[in-house]
Design a protein that fits this description.
2 domains; mainly alpha
C-alpha cells in the first residue's frame, strides 16, 4: 500500500517548522536560559520527530505495510466523509452509526476495525489529527510524535523534580531510549499509550504525593487514564498495583515506629489484593479478556496466535510449553521477564532492526549485572527497600515485562509491546547505581569496589 506520496514530502517541512515554533516558544517561556531542564527540551523533541519520520519510512518502503498504515487508511476513509457531509464526518469520528446503517455503508464497509474498539480509537485520533494535515501520513506522524513527546516530558518532569541531582541521567532514561523513540513516535497504539502513561505518572505524582488538585492536573490525569484503559488496559493492570504500593511506601516512611510501618504495609497490601480480587469478580464482564479468570487464557492465546502467524522463523522465541492457567503462567515468570528486558541476544538476531533491539537489550543486561556485582546483592536490596520511587519503577516494569513476555512469542512484536516498561526499568537502575557512585562516574565503566 502506498500512503506516503509527494504531497507528504512537500508538506512535511511546513509542519515540522510549526512544531518547532511552538516548542521554542514553550521552552523560552517555561525554561529560560540557565534552567537545568532547558537543554533537554528540544533535543528530546528532535529524537521524537526523527523517530516518527523514520519509522513511517521503514513501514512504507521496507515492510510495505503494517498496522500503522492501516490506522491511517481508516483515518483517510473517515476524512473522506467530510466532502459529503460534515455530520457524517463527525458521526464516523465519534463512532455513532452502527455498522449496518445503510447510509454509512460506503465508509464502514471499508473499515475492518470499525467494530474493534481498541483499534478504532487510534483511527479516530489519527483522523482528527490528519484532518489538519490534509490527510497526509508523514505530517500526521510528526504531530503524533510531538504530542506523544509531551507525555515523555511529563515523565521526565516527574522524576527530575524528585531527583534534581540526576537531571542528565533522568533525561537519558525518560527521553532517549532508542526503542521508545522508534516505536513510540509514529501512528501506533504504543505512541498514544506512552503519551498517556507519561501524563498518568505525572498526574498521580502531583495529585497523590504533592496534593496538587488543580483542574488542569485532574483533567489531564483523567484523559490519560481513559486513553490507556481504552487502548491497552493491561498497562493499567501493572501500573495501578505499583502506584498503590508507591503511595503506601511513600507515606509509611513518615511513621517513626518500624512496627507501625510494617503493620500498615501488611494491612494495605491485604486490602489492595482483596480489592483487586473483588473488583475483578464484580466487573469481570466489563474487563472481558483481562478479567482474573481470563487473563492467563488471553496471554496463552495471544502468544500462540502471534507465534503461529509469524512469517519470520528467526523472530520467534520459545519459553517452553505454556499452561493456560495462572499457576502455569507464573512458572514462566523468570523467562518472561528475561525475554522482555534482556533479549534478543546478539546471536539471536537475523536482521538489522532486530540487531538494534539486541544492542539495547544487551545494555540493560550489562547495567543490571554491573549493579549486582559492583554494589552487591545485599546493598542493592537495601537501596530498593529504602526508596519508594525505585520500588514503584521496578514493580511496574517487572510486572509489565512478565505480561508482554509471556504473551508475545515474537521479537518483532515484543520490541514494540515492551516500550512502556523500559523508561521505568532504566530509571530504577540509574537510581540504584548513582546512590552509591558519583554522577560523574560512567555507568558503563566497570571496576570492582575496593
Amino acid at each position: 500500500m502506498q500512503f506516503i506520496t509527494f504531497l507528504d514530502y512537500l508538506l512535511l517541512p511546513f509542519y515540522i517548522i510549526i512544531v518547532y515554533l511552538i516548542a521554542f516558544k514553550i521552552r523560552d517561556t517555561q525554561y529560560p536560559p540557565g534552567h537545568p531542564w532547558r537543554k533537554h527540551f528540544i533535543t528530546g523533541l528532535n529524537a521524537k520527530i526523527i523517530g516518527a519520520v523514520l519509522i513511517g519510512l521503514i513501514y512504507q518502503y521496507y515492510y510495505k505495510g503494517g498496522d500503522t498504515l492501516l490506522y491511517f487508511h481508516h483515518a483517510s476513509i473517515i476524512n473522506k466523509a467530510w466532502s459529503e457531509s460534515i455530520d457524517k464526518w463527525v458521526n464516523l469520528l465519534f463512532h455513532i452509526p452502527p455498522w449496518y446503517q445503510g447510509e454509512y455503508s460506503e465508509y464502514i464497509s471499508k473499515m475492518e476495525w470499525y467494530e474493534s474498539p481498541t483499534e478504532y480509537i487510534v483511527c479516530q485520533i489519527t483522523a482528527f489529527i490528519s484532518f489538519f494535515t490534509f490527510t497526509t501520513y508523514l505530517p500526521t506522524a510528526v504531530l503524533y510524535g510531538a504530542i506523544s513527546y509531551t507525555g515523555l516530558w511529563a515523565l521526565f518532569r516527574t522524576f527530575a523534580t524528585k531527583y534534581p541531582q540526576y537531571i542528565k541521567q533522568v533525561a537519558i532514561c525518560a527521553l532517549y531510549i532508542p526503542s521508545t523513540i522508534m516505536w513510540g513516535s509514529g501512528i501506533f497504539k504504543d505512541t498514544i499509550c506512552m503519551f498517556g502513561l507519561g501524563w498518568l505518572t505525572y498526574g498521580a505524582f502531583r495529585l497523590l504525593i504533592n496534593r496538587d488538585f488543580r483542574v488542569g492536573v485532574i483533567i489531564m490525569t483523567a484523559v490519560s487514564f481513559y486513553l490507556v484503559a481504552s487502548i491497552k488496559l493491561y498497562i493499567l493492570l501493572a501500573f495501578i498495583p505499583a502506584l498503590v504500593l508507591w503511595i503506601l511506601f511513600t507515606y509509611s516512611y513518615k511513621i517513626r515506629s518500624s512496627g507501625a510501618r510494617f503493620m500498615l504495609k501488611i494491612v494495605v497490601l491485604f486490602a489492595a489484593v482483596g480489592g483487586f480480587l473483588v473488583f475483578s469478580q464484580r466487573f469481570a464482564a466489563s474487563l472481558g479478556k483481562y478479567s482474573l479468570d481470563n487473563v492467563s487464557k488471553t496471554a496463552y492465546n495471544t502468544h500462540t496466535f502471534i507465534a503461529s502467524v509469524s512469517k519470520d522463523e528467526g523472530s520467534k522465541y520459545d519459553l517452553g510449553e505454556l499452561d493456560p492457567s495462572i499457576g502455569g503462567m507464573l512458572k514462566k515468570f523468570p523467562k518472561a521477564v528475561n525475554v522482555s528486558l534482556f533479549r534478543p541476544y546478539i546471536w539471536e538476531t537475523r536482521k538489522p532492526i532486530q540487531l538494534l533491539n539486541a544492542i539495547e537489550a544487551m545494555f540493560f543486561l550489562w547495567v543490571t549485572i554491573k549493579i549486582l556485582i559492583t554494589i552487591g546483592l545485599k546493598q542493592t536490596w537495601r537501596t530498593i527497600n529504602s526508596d519508594p520511587t525505585i520500588q514503584f519503577c521496578l514493580i511496574f516494569s517487572i510486572i509489565f515485562a512478565f505480561a508482554v513476555g509471556i504473551s508475545s512469542g515474537n521479537f518483532g512484536t515484543l520490541s514494540r509491546y515492551r516500550i512502556p516498561c523500559l523508561p521505568f526499568y532504566a530509571l530504577a537502575l540509574m537510581l540504584i547505581y548513582y546512590r552509591h557512585n558519583p554522577t560523574s562516574k560512567n555507568i558503563l565503566s566497570f571496576r570492582l569496589r575496593g
